[in-house]
Amino acid sequence: MAERIFESDLEAWFADAPPLPDSRLFAARVTRRLDRAWTLRRVVIGGLGLIGGVIGGAQMLSSGLFGGLARVQAQSTAVTSVLAGHLENSPLARSPMVHDTLAGLGAGGSETLLMSAALALLAVGLLVTRAIREI
Amino acid sequence: MADPAIVVASAHDLDLAALAAAGDRPAFGELVRRHGSSVRSLLRRMGAEAALADDLAQDAFLAAFEQIAEFRGEGTFVAWVRRIAARLYLRRWKRDKRIDLTAETPEPLDSGPAASPGDRIDLDGALSRLTGVERLCVSLCYGAGLSHAEAASALNLPLGTVKSHVKRGLDKLRAHLAPRVPVEAGIHG
Predict the structure, then answer these.
(1) Which residues of B touch A13 (CB under 8 A)?
(2) What is the pLDDT of residue B113?
(3) By CB distance 3.0 to 4.6 Å, which of A1, A51, A84, B48 could disulfide with B43?
(4) CA distance B88 to chain A (A)
(5) CB-CB neighbours of A49 under 10 Å
């Protein structure tokens, strides 16, 4: 019994450590290291994201994606024109809805590309803003 | 609206740990302020020099912040960090072999009794009379809350050897702290 009491006292004595004189300084040091590690992590994550974005963008450019898109767009316009030519003489083309749709099919190729480019620029802008804020 | 600094300062450890788990670093800073001395003292009592104890205590708190989602509030926060710190010290100890497991009991600086009944328990003085391995075993089991089996596993020693070291260490501590023990024991009895 006395042994158990001594053991539980010992646990209490271990737990009851007197505050060390430089305890505030110690806490400040830990907080500083914590802040540094946190900032470093955010910079690394943001930096890796930026590098990934740049590499991805470069890959897209080097693979001729935009040229391919433009070719597809041109082919699509040509096919649509041929189709529209065939349909023009059919009775279906007399319907106003079909007529408007056929008229709109040929246009819009360059607008789509411009809108995609604008969205891409917006995404890059957001990425750069975020990276600056992280740093 | 209440000042956040006051709210943090008066919050319970478990609430602060929950805030820290959500990424609140000021809340974790408060936990460090509250329990830094306890963790550093344990490492010193285990045998670490003051500078090493401080470095390891810092590492323990940083590791605690990283792993705070694993703290489920089953024990106290400080006990959890003390265990992390003890394991870090053991890892360092295994790497550096700072303590000679075969070392004999050091000569005590004075052979007189410990503190007088009215004084604070001189646990550090009493621990200094133990051999390195006795001190380590006792600190692990009674300071860091490891079981004998966990301490044996952490130290790569047979369980029986750890139990022997703990028993010898307790006997020496009891002998040294004897003048004070009946007073403390009276609280329980």
Answers:
(1) 121, 123
(2) 43
(3) B48
(4) 16
(5) 14
Q: What is the dihedral of CA A2, B101, A12, B159, to 10 degrees?
A: -60
pTM, to two decimals? 0.66
Between A14, A18, A27, which is nearest B142 by CB?
A14
Q: How many whole angstroms separate alpha carbon B58 and alpha carbon B69?
A: 19
Which token pair is B176? 């040294």
pLDDT in tens, B55-100: 999 999 999 999 998 898 788 999 999 999 999 999 888 887 655 5
User: Which of residues 4 through 23 in chain A touch B, CB cutoff 8 A?
Assistant: 5-11, 13-15, 17-20, 23
The two tokens of residue A25 are 């300084």
3-state secondary structure of B72: coil
Helix (H, G, I), strand (E, B), or coil: what is residue B144?
coil
**pLDDT tens digits, B16-45:** 999 999 988 889 999 999 999 999 999 999
Return d(Cα A135, Cα A43) in angstroms, integer.
Answer: 6
Nearest CA in chain A to B65: A34
Rg (CA), chain B: 18
ipTM of the complex: 0.75
Please write the tens of the pLDDT for every residue from B97-135: 655 555 555 444 443 444 444 455 788 889 988 998 899
